[in-house]
Amino acid sequence: LDLLRVAGELSERSEAETIEKEHVDRAQSKIERDRVVETVRSQPKHSKLVLYTILEMTEDEDEIATGDVYSEYKELCEELEISELTQRRVSGLISELDMLGVINAKVISKGRYGRTRQISVDLSDNIRAKLREMVEDKFYI
């Protein structure tokens, strides 16, 4: 119903007589963007900082490891003069972001060197930019 409502509003704004497939596609994108942004907005500050770190790192690489995220997150916390969480807690935040569908984290076995999670982000550039902007505004980055 929400999809139909938003598609109808978009159709109305463009002064169309009927709801076209284009309106439905744009409505789907808008609903998805709003859902992700609202989900992240309700998260604690360190979850936002971890996500920001992941978004920045995945600009250059498709997949990143949990340990690399933690190193970058620590640097960001130092820059912002915010006390950082432990690596174990950050790993938990990454799991939460994965469960919320904001990021994808799959466990990779490194044999005797242990396990890590490879993290990737499957969000559109538009949603990524909106999330980055939200965190930058909140923390004055």
Describe this protein's structure.
The longest helix is centred in the first third of the chain and has 21 residues, at 21-41. The protein has a three-stranded antiparallel beta sheet with strand order 1-3-2. With 141 residues, the protein is mainly alpha-helical. It starts with a helix and ends with a helix. It is 63% helix and 10% strand. α3 (45-57) crosses α4, α3 (45-57) crosses α5 and α3 crosses α6. It folds into two domains: 2-39, no CATH class; 44-139, Arc Repressor Mutant, subunit A, CATH 1.10.10. The radius of gyration is 18 Å and the shape is elongated.
Assign the CATH architecture of the largest domain: Orthogonal Bundle
Q: Can you tell me the number of structural domains?
A: 2
Name of the CATH superfamily of the largest domain: Winged helix-like DNA-binding domain superfamily/Winged helix DNA-binding domain
Strand content: 5-15%
Major sheet attributes: 3 strands, antiparallel
Order of helices and strands: HHHEHHEEH
Sheet/helix structural class = mainly alpha
Kindly report the spatial arrangement of strands forming the biggest sheet. 1-3-2
Output mean pLDDT.
90
CATH class of the largest domain: Mainly Alpha
Query: What is the general shape?
Result: elongated
Helix content: 55-70%
Give the low-pLDDT segments: none
Summed up, the helix count is 6
Could you give the distance between the termini? Answer: 38 Å
Can you tell me the CATH topology of the largest domain? Arc Repressor Mutant, subunit A
Radius of gyration: 18 Å
Oligomer: single chain
Please report the total strand number as a whole number: 3
